[in-house]
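pasting input
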Amino acid sequence: MAGLIQNIALFGENIPWFQGLREKGLEAFKHQGVPTAKTEAWKYTKPRDLNADDFVMNESNFLLELAEEKAECHCHEKSCHCHEDGCHCHEEGCHCQDEINVLVDLPFEAYQLHFYNGQFVPIYPPLPRGVEVMTLMEAVLNQEAKNYLGKLVDLANYPFAALNTAYMEEGSFIRLDKNTKLDKPIIIVNHSETGEQNLFYNLRNVVVLEAGAEAEIVEWYKYAGAEKSRYFANIVNEIFVARGAKLKHYKLQNEAFKANHLALNMVNIKEGGKYEAFCLQRGANIGRNETKVILTEEQAEAEVNAAYIMHGWATLDTTTDIEHLAENTISHQLVKGVVGGDAKGVFQGKIHIAKHAVKTEGTQLHKALLLTDTAEIDVKPELEIFADDVKCSHGAASGELDEETLFYMQSRGIGREEAKQILIDAYLDDAVNKIADSEVRDWFKEMIKA
Amino acid sequence: MTMIKRQHKKEDIMTNTPLLEIEDLYARVGEKEIIKDFNLTINEGEVHAIMGPNGAGKSTLSYVLTGKPGYEVTSGKVWFKGKDLLAMSPEERAREGIFLCMQYPVEIPGVPTTTFLKHAVNAVRKHRNEPELDTLNFVKMVREEGKALGIDNEMIKRPVNVGFSGGEKKRLETLQMSILKPDFSILDEADSGLDIDALKVVADGVNALRDGHRSMLVITHYQRLLNYIVPDFVHVFADGHIVRSGDKTLALELEEKGYAEFVKEK
Ligand SMILES: Nc1ncnc2c1ncn2[C@@H]1O[C@H](COP(=O)(O)OP(=O)(O)OP(=O)(O)O)[C@@H](O)[C@H]1O
Ligand SMILES: [Mg+2]
């Protein structure tokens, strides 16, 4: 059965509050349907290009596992997935701990969480005190997710988030206690590859930073199989930044070039909380990273920066919506893109300043470099300012590579393509330099070159 | 030629091997024919100077030789080391050993000068089948070559030519030349905007490359530069081609009389 609404059994149907959320999600999605080009929020990134009917969902991984006999842990195999509660064996020949390094090579230290085609790989990193990481279903079963899940998502206006809610099962729940400071980033790696069928899957992550906590979360969407894999990843993150907490949130979208990747980040920031985000998109056929930040209390601050680079036929969309609901709140956005081939870059950026949100500051700048005559960008900045005494600005610009400059570089022996790459790197540099973590920054710079 | 002897005792090998041969060249920019019936042969080790009125087409010639887009050769041939130069891309020409010290060097915001230099050096080295320089050796080389030209570390950390003074831009051009060690350099008004001390510095940098094999084409309006970079031949360029050639004394004559005589000659 194809299409985005599929009749599959999910784990946790007997938990009323949770199942209730799913039902509301399904209803909201059915009511809205896949948006059309007439839907304002989807004016430029055409939903029909998602080819939504081409995908199927996997059976619930959890239900399949329950049906199987519980295997005992022998831990002699390289790909040991035995542990319910982490691997406790200290036997020789157990590669459980190795595998964390085997799974991905990172140029920095991080606690790694892995998903394959949207399904959790049960390797739990050893975490410091005050930090909890579990699967979404665990957090649903032990009720921890109850106060957070679905609280930030407006089902009526975000059809794909509604769809995600209808099928939520996989994902992670990350919570930091009051004043806990994470010593290294948590990275969530989603590896995708599809075989005979084009997979559609939903991922739902909940991140909770309690007052004064500090963390860094990195998301990495990568294809594990063929470059031509087609799949559809639909992701929703609900992020709660409490009073005085600080979250760095970096994302690398490097999906296979025929994949669809839709992500919605819903962020709620309380008094003096700070959220710093950077998203680099360089893969997928349709890639959309949408971020809604609500600065709910005074002195809340958000930096939502991004870069994208693409060729071929892709559409990469960066959509932001920053709501200033309180006095003295600050937001900054810098988004830069490089568009080649017949590709299309989309930036929709909204800043909303509520009536009583005086003395706020909101800035937004989008710049794109067009490499070909057939490359396209669509930009829609929106300012809704209902308060006086605010500092608010937005700007957009696009340009091309300068022929004089290219010739100058070529006349020094630098190949034309190499020269272009140097100029592209330089173009994206000021956006990428906004990443506060220098190791992640350097990694992203490498990814731009690759 | 006597100058060369004095400067390079051991390597005084004026071989008369042609390095660059330009035959019946015609070229245009847009609709306008600028180079017309241009002929010139430069042998290994020779330094030729070209002087001529504003707008004569001197810079155009340098762009035609380096392959700048928009400069269209309508007929004629150019041989460089016996190879068909006009068939090569700009980067191939550079890797083969042609260098243009530009009249107006280009600013490249966002690209540190070191990054730019390293890419250039390694592109040329790769072409010559030499191993690429690692950062350490690269930095060492730039520091050594830069020292003589008064170019410090601070300067090369900055984006290429951005905010450089006129003199600094010319010194950076000379640094690139010293690093890339081209067989044939075209200096397009390397002296413009330089004070007297800087002029000496640049000229010393250029002269350091003269070894009896490398050749140069020096475009200038002022005889003064030719006191420092002493040419074997001086040509007067007007109306798209060379109207008169002589030795270095021709430059002195031009300084006195101007171009009126030659411009009328057509
Ligand atoms: N892109 C262009 N389009 C049209 N005309 C051009 C272009 N570039 C150069 N020209 C014209 O070609 C002629 C030769 O210019 P060029 O710069 O080669 O002169 P030059 O001899 O180097 O002069 P100067 O001594 O002032 O540097 C000039 O008339 C100039 O206006
Ligand atoms: Mg000129």
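fyi Chain A is about 20% helix and 35% strand.
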